[in-house]
Queue: 3 jobs
Job 1
Amino acid sequence: MDSASAKSAAPVLNGSPNASLFGATLGFFIGFGAVALFGATAGKFKDAMQLSPYLVGYLVAIPMLTGSLLRIPFGAWVDTTGGKKPFLLLLLLSLLGMSGLYGVLLTLYPNHLTASHYPLILLLGALAGCGIATFSVGIGQISYWFPQERQGWALGAYAGFGNTAPALATIGLPAVTMYWGLSTAYLISAAILIVGILLYSILGKNAWYFQLLRKGYQPDEARVIAKQKGQEIFPRGSAIQALTTAATTWRMWPLVILYFTTFGGFLALTAWFPTFWKAYYGVNLATAVSLTAGFSLLTSLIRVAGGIWADRMGGERVAIMALVSLLLGALIVAFSSFFAATIVGALLMAIGMGVNNAAVFKLVPRYVEHSVGGAAGWVGGLGAFGGFAVPPLLGWFATVEGTAGYARGFLVYVGLAFLCLVLAWFLRASQPRAKRASA
């Protein structure tokens, strides 16, 4: 079959960019939201199994560890299949974990759940965390659907709306647990995952190029037809090649550091802020949770606007502006002793983090256009490790300096923001003048 006959055959292709964006966003939202239940209820497992704070720390971290590490290989897998298979597999693994946790709670909690069950809970938590790894898969899948000039908006909408799931789950969880019990909360989460899997299997479509490969077209033929339909970005090579190509593209590594600071830093603060508000200002738990949920929602939703701004003004320029906001906000929080001023600082940090996250993934398809999935895996996976690396540093300040250390710990973000500003400026300066003007 040559390219002429491929055109005349008029293959039937399914889906559209916007419909596929909706399907991937819904799948990521549900996969991420279900896992939020596990971390929020870790205290229940602690009490039942009489765990030390050290073991509880591992329990809370394990879903984020798998959710981060699996982003790398599963993101690269997108470059060979288009995304639907790895996305569904991750959601099914998450469902296995959540269903297992429901079974454990239904049969053992609270009186028969002991420390001997800790490895099992750890394993099930690791499986539940697979839902978080859908992020990099969706990034690659959507990137192949949209042209370059709409990448910022599409990826910003995907990540922005999808990342609201943990905050919404945190708000709704206490009522579910209070009225229906812990095991019922896990049953509801498992049921929502099942609905999400069914909806994604219908709505989540691979880009036209991958559909054509599945129909038996050769890569060159598929590329010609997909280009005629508007697809601009195409993969090259296997999953291993995708990871290698991305890793040897030097501009990807500054993006990893930027994402480590603002997405990993965002994950760190969603875990740290409840402790910060209670310890530094003495607010009650409900207020601390509400302030943290507000921070999380703003960081997530502003990412949508950040993607639009990155399309219009260029990813590097928007990243620089966002990092200035993060820097100013972190300085305010680090040195303020006034509640209202600290809230303003936290809002500036939220805006900076959300907008920079959008700018980073506007740049991923631009810098690594032939290995978007591989690059999304590296950036998303390694970047999320900020969620593990930053909290111990914040805790160290509090240990050394006492109550004041809860505020001084935000100097960590001041240093990271300054480093990222240098890197973002370098990325912009390294672009040819013509590209810089159009970016």
Job 2
Amino acid sequence: MIKKSFNIVLFSPDIPGNTGSIGRTCVALDINLILIRPYGFDLSEKSVRRAGLDYWKYVKLKEYENWDHFIEIESPKKEELILFSKTGAKSFYKAPFKESCYLVFGSETKGLPQETLKKFPQNIYQLPMFSEHVRSLNLANAATVASYECLRQLNL
């Protein structure tokens, strides 16, 4: 089996259950989960573990104090950052997924910070939503959908 090396990045996640569910997806796909502080919860909370079930211990987890710390240590190329926002003008189906990419999601309540979006305007993608009655998708669902689209495009 081909080794996948892309990453899911959560910037300041608020809801522990979503983080746990995304961790489970990361274990299933054997990819990294990167968390950028601050969090709206403590990683030791039962709700994180409950959503991740008994898989949480297998999550390949990296934590960073802030966005700059993440950029400094990971040193991603600009084209490896794929930012997700409901304000994105391009469909995620057109994202330039690579095995080394970082699928970056903002917090459930605030999304990605404006300064981050302004630094990388060409890297912003959105998942389609056709109803005016829905403000956003659940973070865990969005991260999972994006991960499987990345796999599909990489033919893995």
Job 3
Amino acid sequence: MRYIPNSPEERAEMLKTIGLSSAEELFSSIPQDIKLGRKLNITEPLAESEVIKLMESLAEKNSGSKKTSFLGAGTYPHYSPTVVDYLIQRSEFFTSYTPYQPEVSQGTLQYIFEFQTLVCQLTGMEVANASMYDGSTAMAEAILMAQRLTRRNKVVIAKNVHPEYIEVARTYTKYSETDIETIEFDKKTGTIKPEELKLSENTACLVVQSPNFFGCIEDLKKLADITHAVGAIFIVVVTEAISFGLLKPPGKFDADIVVAEGQSFGIPMSFGGPHVGLFATKEKFVRQMPGRLAGIAYDKNGNRGFVLTLATREQHIRREKATSNICTNQGLIALAATIYMETMGRRGLQEVALQNAQKAAYAKQRINSLKGFSIAFSAPTFNEFVVRSEQPASEFLDNLRKEKGIIGGLPLSRYFPENQTDFLVCVTEIHTKQQIDEFVDCLNKL
């Protein structure tokens, strides 16, 4: 009854009411040749206690929870204050849904408004929406928004943007007239060379990531100037949100749209989701921004209230005028991120970011001093960096995981087949000096 609220007797009564004798009759219109024709490969019904044991056994297979892990690449291990989980599990937050009747959802609208305000402060932008599904879909929506703003179809994406983000963008635009071009990065610095960037008057937008997929920090100001010179939209992607605590925000470099993955703000990695996408832009572009926007209004007596200012899907009335088909937001996850940011505060976030940068720099220096290993790119980094070895990275990283219980990073050959000896290492505030030293010592013995 906890999982299936309708009893067999109730289901039989419902079927009888509509003149059917079995649930199978409900699907009689489906052709037989496309039906599975066998039972699903799942267990038989389990008691609640058995379900809990099964879930616990599956959770134990998550190697990242028990092993020392230096994986990053878009999903990051960070410490989350216990207050985050405690507050989001309160019933008024945990069970509430999207504000379709906004005037009676004051609490929900208030935390959305606070979330938007914090995102604007972090990114240096003028307006932010109530959140997107995740960073990758936020980037895809930003590309579509740039096309609407410029009425152009040529999209230029740097190759050092997260490869999975690029794949999501291709999926979003597969059946449109969008022409996606990827541009190479400098093999020495790991960043885009502004002087070699060739954009045209047909370019809708330039998409770059900073810190990029290799952890390198891009020269956003030069890239913005080149983009704006041809009337295109400059989109900046951030996968590691903690970097906002240390690096100058993209808005200071005249970015037009900033999108980010907010998982680092108190949200567990959770095998890749659910996470939360951040989306911010300039106020003059707000009418083309996807998603929804909460704002403040005052009644005739001067009392403050929160309202749903924009819902650009126009789901309530003019759907044909929609700028996006996203009709909700990651409410609970956005709330978790809001609580994290409010708990940490400006100084707390700066301290966490500084610890990330310092610990990563220590690991980077130690690895670079080892025989047979070097740092692949010369550009400054935040908490991720690429290590180049003299042997295939996937092989010794696999042995390191099995023999020492250390997940030493991500082999870049997964996304860049030509980079067989390179691997991406991420160090955050949760890593101790002892763990870093143990990892380096293991590399030294290879």
